Every structure is written in C-alpha cells, then in structure tokens.
Amino acid sequence: MLLRAFAGPARDRVTAVWVLLVGATLLSFWLGTDHGLSSTEARSLVILVVAFVKVRFVGLYFMELRTAPVALRALFEGWCLAACLALIGFYLFA
Amino acid sequence: MNTRNQRLCVWSGLLMMVLFSIGFWGVARLIPPPSPGWSATDLAHYLTEHQTRIRIGLVISMLGVAPGFAFPVAILLQLRRIEGPSSPLAYTQLVTGMLTPVLFILPMFAMAAAAYRPETRSPEITQALDDLGWLMLVGFGGPAILQNIVIAMAVFGDRRADPVFPRWVGYFNVWAALLFVPGLLVICFLGGPFAWNGVFAFWVPLTVFGAWYVVMTVALLRAVDQEEREALPIGTDPAPAGAPRPA
Amino acid sequence: MSTISETTTAAAERGQRHLPGEEGTWVFILGDMTVFAVFFATYLYYRGQQRALFIESQHSLVQGYGVTNTLLLLTSSLCVVLGMKAVRRRLAGEPTRAAPWLFGGALACGLGFSVMKFVEYGQKLAAGITPATNDFFMYYFILTGLHFFHLILGMGVLVFLIRAGRQASMSARQFAFVEGGACFWHMVDLLWIVLFPLLYLVK
Q1: CA angle, corner B118, sides to B123 and B200, nearest 5?
Q2: d(CA B204, CA B175)
Q3: A46: three-class secondary structure by DSSP
Q4: Cα C198 to Cα A50, B41, B227, C46, C192, distances in angstroms
Q5: Interface ipTM
Q6: Is pLDDT at C132 greater than 50 in this prediction?
Q7: What is the C-alpha R_g of chain A?
C-alpha cells in the first residue's frame, strides 16, 4: 500500500520531479565544489539559477500551484523571477 | 452598544501612527536612526546641534502616542464577540496591546534625556542614554509578538457562521509576529542589518508595524459594521448572520 | 465528503483550478518568502563588501552536511505530496491508510535535518566559531537559525498532518487547513533550496 503511493499511475509525475530535484542538487554540489566550469562567477551564477528553477518546480508540482488560480501562480512565479534577478544583481554588483 | 465610540477607538490606531510619524520622523528627524556606530562625541555634538527640533519632535510624538491606548480596546471589543462572555484571549490581547504605547513613551524619555543637556555633560553619559532609548524602542518585540499570536488564535478559533474577522487576518498576524523576532537581536549588534538602524531590526519591523495598523483598522471597521448589522431587529437585516457562540 | 473530493481531486482531473489551502495561507507563505528574499539579498550585499572574508570563511563549512540536508528536505516534501494524495483518496472513499505513514516519513526527514544541524552547529562552536567570529558566520548562524525555527514550526505542522491523515472524513475548512500545512512544509524546503547554495556553494 505504501509502495503504491510511490509508484501508482497518478503519482509518477511528482516522483519524477523529485528525481529531477535530486539531480539538480547534486549538479549544484558538484559545481560548488570547484568542478565543471572554470570561471568561479559562471559556476556561482549557474548554481543560483538552478536553485530558482528548483524552487519553481517545488512551487508548481509540490505546492500544486500549477493548477492553482492564475493570480496565485503569477504571484509565485513573479517572486521566483524577481528574487532570482535581485540575487544575481547583488551577487554581480554588490 | 456604542458603535460611534468604538469607531473612534479603531481610528485612534492610525491617528497614533500619523502623530508619531510627524513628531519622530518629520520634526525630530530621528528616522533614519542615528547610527549606533557613532562616537560619543559625534553623538553629543549632533544632539546639541539639533536640540530644538529633537525636543519639539519628541513632545509631539509623546503626546501623539496617547491615542494608541484606545486601539487595543477596539480589538478587545471585537475579540470578545468571538470568544463570548469569558474571553481570555481578548484580555491577554488588551494587556499586551497596552504595552505598545508605553514602550514607545519610555524610550522617548531616554532619548529626551540624552538631548536634555548634551553640551555640558560628558559625552559617554549622553551616549549611554541614547543607547538605552534606541535599544528599548527597537528591541521591545515580546509583547507585540504575543499580541499578534493571541489575535491569530482568536481568529482561527472563530466558529461563528459569519466570522468577525476573515481568516487571512489571522495568518497576517502570525506573519507579523515572525517579523518582529529579528528586532530582539538588536542588543547584540553595533552595526549591520541587525543593529537598531539595520534592515531587519528597524526597517522591516517598522514597515510591518505600519502595515499591521492599516490591516487591523480595515478589519476592525468591517467587524464593527457587522456588529451593527447583527444588532438590528430580525427581519430588517438583509443578510442574517450566525449568532455568536463561545469558541 | 463529496464536497471535498469535488473541489480537489475531481476538480484537478477536470482541469479546473483549485486554491491549495486558504487564501490566508498564501498571505503568510508569500509574505514569509518575500522577507526571506530580502534576507538573501542583504546577505549578498554585505558579502560584496567583504568578498575575500566571506569566501575564506565559507571554506570551513562542510558542503556534505548542506547537501544531505537538501536531500532530506526534498524527500520529506515528496512524502508530504504523496501523503496529501493519499488523504484525498481516503476522503474519496478508498480504504488507504498510507497518509499518516507518509507524513511520518516526512517528520523523520525533518528530525534527520535537525540532528545534522545540531552536529554542524556543535562542530562550529567546538572549533571556537560563533556568530561573533565575523560577519559571514553572523549571517550563517542567523539565516540557518531562522530557517531552523521555521523547520521546527513545520515539524509541529507535520504532527498535526499525521493526526489529520488518520481521519476518514473532514470538513472543507479542515481540509483546507491540512493543505495549507502541507504548503508550509514545502516552503521550508523551498527556502533551504535557496539558502543552501547561497551560504555553502556560491563563491
């Protein structure tokens, strides 16, 4: 019964999102421990953008904002975009 | 039931904010606050130079804070409609709410003492008084946090068919309570965002504080309207509301 | 209980829009997220003032702890999502009892996060690193501490969800409260997703 919760037909999408989020976390970890791109700044920017992509996925699929009223979804996505841009700005220019 | 006086109590909250802003911000120009990083001599010099406007501003804001005593009474009267005859939350709210104007006036007296004779006394004494004033004004979050939590508990516990406050008012109060917490850290920092002129200790709580008065005023005015409608004899009320029951 | 299944599962299947939780839940969640965004931006602003110090101090953080905690929270969030689905199936009449177990799994992940946090704080303090050490560690302790405070509130919410998950029926308002609680837990996860790279990885 518990297994069904993880593997049932209507559930596979959120489980797939979880796999994606874990993958993105490991990617950031790999980049953050000085692998991948040679430029520190480029690595940090990728890490920041990946973080907000993950945030968006958590919002849309876990908080179920994908099917929420448009205004709420727009507020959430607006937050993601504004916060991501603000943090990139502060990272680059502060 | 006297809804006219109740509405006066409701409006007293914003009246307090306006008068306080005029005195403290407009005249005394103590917002943005003088930095805790200033040397004692600089501070004493600043207070000497601007002594007159700081004094006049403090007089206005100390008087202006007085209407703030009526605001928690307005909240009490509405929370009692939720809770019924025995209303522990409403009275806890009253006690904590009463402390807000007190905790505005006391630190302003410390600031007034700092500006009393900065030109003749040793600057370190002036600095100590000024520290006392600002730490008290910015760091007094405790009672306000409890007040917010108590209001939220009452709103969430409202079992009336037609609730006194919409439930989002409860969530808003929980949010406000959380934002007052960083202000308590003010005693640990001489600079940066958690110092008494910092983003988290001063600007965020100040904004939330202002927003809280606006939100509560709107919510209270609607609640008083609803109370008036419910008091009308049955039949004249176009939208019959649920009778109050103890939570 | 037809009202609940209509407004949630069935509505989603018919492609209708459904507000998770109550409107007020979102006043709180979006408000909290906005304040945290200000926290994050402030951190980066002050980091820009003392870049070398921040990068040097960051070296003494153990990234492994941060990654493990991220994975724990992601897993807990998945458990909560699946738990909510189980709650809906149960309210729709299916005899499933998975929900309390799934919420319990999320709580176990939360406890795991707390243990890691204590170990991490303990090691820092044992090494003589405190919030007073420098500005980086001040932010490190305050930001992770504020997040930890939210996590503890969230674990309280999970205990409530475990109890609610046992019920075979609930009112529309109770159900909205449960949904709001689940979203609060996702917010705890979401904030850590930003906080972890900001403190541990961004150089």
Answers
A1: 75
A2: 12
A3: helix
A4: 12, 40, 50, 13, 9
A5: 0.89
A6: yes
A7: 16
| Residue A48 CA: distances (Å) to CA of B88, B237, C185, C187, C199 | 48, 57, 22, 18, 11
Residue A7 has pLDDT above 70, yes or no: no
Q: Residue B42 contacts by C-beta under 8 Å, 6 or more apart in sequence?
A: none
Query: Long-range contacts for B228-233 (Cβ within 8 Å, ≥24 apart)?
Result: B228/B1, B228/B3, B231/B1
Asked if residue A65 has pLDDT above 60, the reply is: yes
Q: How far apart are CA A51 and CA B122, in angstroms?
A: 54
The pLDDT-based confidence of A6 (bands split at 50, 70, 90) is: low
Mean pLDDT value of segment A31-39: 81
Biggest alpha carbon distance in chain A?
53
> Percentage of chain A surpassing pLDDT 70?
87
Question: Distance, in angstroms, between C191 CA and closest chain B CA?
Answer: 15
- Torsion angles phi and psi, residue B242, rounded to 5: -70, 145
Distance CA B38, CA B137 (A): 18
CB C76 within 8 A of CB C182: no
Cβ separation A1–C17 shorter than 8 A: no
Q: Which among C67, C71, C101 has the least Cβ separation from residue A2?
A: C101
Give the residue carrying structure tokens 């120009």.
B29
Question: Mutate which of C8, C13, C26 to disrupt the A interface (most A C-beta within 10 Å)?
Answer: C26
The residues of chain B scoring below 70 in pLDDT are 1, 234-247
Per-residue pLDDT reduced to its tens digit, C17-72: 899 999 889 999 999 999 899 999 999 999 999 999 999 999 999 999 999 999 99
Sequence letter at residue C102: L
Asked if A14 has any chain C CB less than 8 Å from its own CB, the reply is: yes
Which phi and psi (to 5°) does residue C176 adopt? -60, -35
Taking contacts as CB-CB distances below 8 angstroms, the residues of chain C near A18 are 74-75, 77-78
Residue C194 in contact with residue A51, Cβ under 8 Å? yes
- Nearest partner of C188 among C54, C43, C90, C70, judged by Cα: C70
Give the Cα separation of A32 and A42 in Å (integer).
Answer: 11
Q: Would the CB atoms of C63 and A59 count as touching at under 8 Å? A: no
Cis peptide before B32 (omega within 30 of 0): yes
CB B43 within 8 A of CB B127: yes
Place of tokens 């504004």: A82
CA–CA dist C4, C172 (Å, integer): 6
Tell me if chain A has a CB within 8 Å of the CB of C198. yes
> Which of C26, C35, C135, C148 to mutate: most B Cβ within 10 Å?
C35
Instruction: Give burial (CB, 10 Å; 0-12/13-18/19+) of B173.
Output: buried
